[in-house]
Design a protein that fits this description.
DENN domain-containing protein 2D isoform X1; 14 strands; guanine-nucleotide releasing factor; 458 residues; uDENN_dom; 40% helix; Rossmann fold; globular; 5-stranded mixed beta sheet; 16 helices; guanyl-nucleotide exchange factor activity
Length: 458
């Protein structure tokens, strides 16, 4: 267990800060997803998943239940020795995340299936997503829940939730029907944004079915559900969380349901677009690793509320602790209301209040919320393009002092003086210095925003 805990805790390490090279011309890639993977995620062309595992609860000699992988598809084959060691470490970690709630389980007669996700960090800092469906095995009598977990390097919760629906549908008929479906999915190519892939699957008495899996045209939001976050928290608390993560602090969200935890944490990270959270985020922290919240590095983690007392017993440094079930702050640093520029903060609050009162579909909410926070970044630092100075052909340097001085608002300048020190800002600017194609959507919106402001300045 100590070795396994070490694998998980490794994700808490803070990546080396490249702050010293921000004024140079070298580019730094987005650490959250390697460049080669990022291109495939955006354009399609990659396999859907790496493997499907079934995690079941097995009774130990002491009478407690422990999660174990009871099936894996496909088996690890034709990989290098060091890759095999890393994959085995990750596979050993998966059961903890499928059953993060400890070993207090007992057989049940009824259990409402739930869908959630987690994130594992590889030794090279790349990330893998685990998409989970927890449910009771078929049959009469009492049973312990089991989890069907799909491991993928692709962040696309909505699409994998639909895949898990198909897995559960086949499992209700016969477990053997799952694997031909997954094999068909494995042979298919992950579609480009806005495109559809069709999977043929045979079901007894129904014949051959065609399952259509379509990606949204705007792939920035395909892993996100802002609606759940808005249902759990009021606008003021959401702003407290945003202010904390934008300065790369420590944030803990607490809830009863695994699905709410994972959805809300993914939503919080998405508020940062076009920036990426460069540190640890664990949507559901396993009980055996609760002590990792005392780590001094930045993190965003989710914890089930049954372990709240354990969290409060930890020697934590400054942290924002939020109860998603009660919609209230449990613990805060105290300056969260003063971090963001007041005028812009009030604009966001009014917009969020409107979204909570108006009935809209999840895609509509996702688009509206994303636009609101993206506009915040455009207003505070949309002028960054004017302060990228070309020093050699194709090489640029960022004029930070001039960038800060160009802001007339004292409150915005005060915020930016803190924000430019973050790792997410450093990496974003380094990418711009190399004229990276990352965040093209944001770059286009910034261009439109600056064009609209020109008449106002005259």
């Amino acid at each position: 267990m100590d070795q396994l805990a070490g694998v998980i805790r490794r994700s808490f390490r803070r990546k080396s800060n490249k702050r010293g090279s921000i004024h140079g011309a070298s580019a730094s890639e987005d650490r959250s997803i390697p460049t080669d993977q990022k291109t495939l995620v955006l354009s399609g062309g990659q396999s859907f998943f790496e493997y499907l595992v079934v995690v079941s609860l097995k009774k130990n000699y002491d009478g407690n239940y422990a999660p174990q992988i009871t099936y894996q598809f496909p088996k690890l084959e034709n990989i290098l020795h060091f890759q095999k060691d890393e994959e085995e470490r990750l596979l050993n970690a998966i059961p903890l995340f499928c059953f993060p709630d400890g070993n207090t389980w007992a057989p049940l007669k009824e259990y409402t299936s739930e869908t959630f996700s987690f994130v594992l960090t590889n030794i090279d800092s790349s990330r893998k997503f685990g998409y989970c469906r927890r449910l009771l095995p078929a049959g009469n009598g009492s049973h312990s829940p089991e989890v069907y977990c799909i491991i993928s390097s692709l962040g696309c919760f909505g699409l994998f939730a639909k895949i898990l629906d198909e897995v559960e549908k086949r499992r209700e008929i016969a477990t053997a029907l799952i694997y031909p479906f997954m094999q068909g999915l494995r042979e298919a190519t992950f579609p480009a944004p806005g495109k559809t892939v069709k999977i043929k699957s045979f079901i007894p008495e129904s014949g051959t079915e065609i399952i259509e899996l379509t990606r949204p045209l705007d792939c920035r939001l395909e892993h996100i559900d802002f609606k759940t976050l808005l249902q759990c928290l009021n606008s003021q608390i959401i702003l407290h969380i945003f202010a904390s993560v934008v300065l790369e602090r420590r944030v803990i969200l607490v809830a009863r349901d695994l699905s709410i935890l994972s959805e809300c944490i993914h939503a919080v990270v998405a508020l940062l677009y076009p920036f990426a959270w460069e540190h640890t985020y664990i949507p559901v922290l396993p009980h055996v690793l609760i002590d990792t919240v005392s780590c001094p590095a930045p993190f965003i983690v989710g914890v089930q509320n049954q372990f709240l007392s354990h969290i409060l017993d930890q020697p934590m440094e400054e942290v924002l602790l939020v109860d998603l079930c009660k919609g209230e702050l449990i613990q805060k640093v105290g300056d969260e209301e003063k971090i963001l520029p007041p005028k812009l903060q009030e604009q966001i609050r009014i917009s969020l209040d409107d979204y909570q009162q108006i009935t809209k579909t999840t895609p509509e909410i996702n688009t509206a919320v994303s636009k609101t926070f993206m506009q915040f970044f455009m207003k505070v630092m949309g002028h960054y393009t004017s302060h990228l100075q070309e020093i050699n052909v194709g090489k640029f340097t960022f004029q930070e002092k001039a960038f800060l001085k160009a802001i007339h608002s004292k409150t915005i300048r005060r915020f930016l003086k803190c924000f430019v020190k973050t790792q997410m800002f450093s990496i974003f600017i380094e990418a711009q210095q190399n004229k990276s194609t990352q965040n093209v959507y944001f770059q286009q919106k910034v261009k439109e925003f600056n064009e609209q402001r020109k008449p106002e300045r005259k």
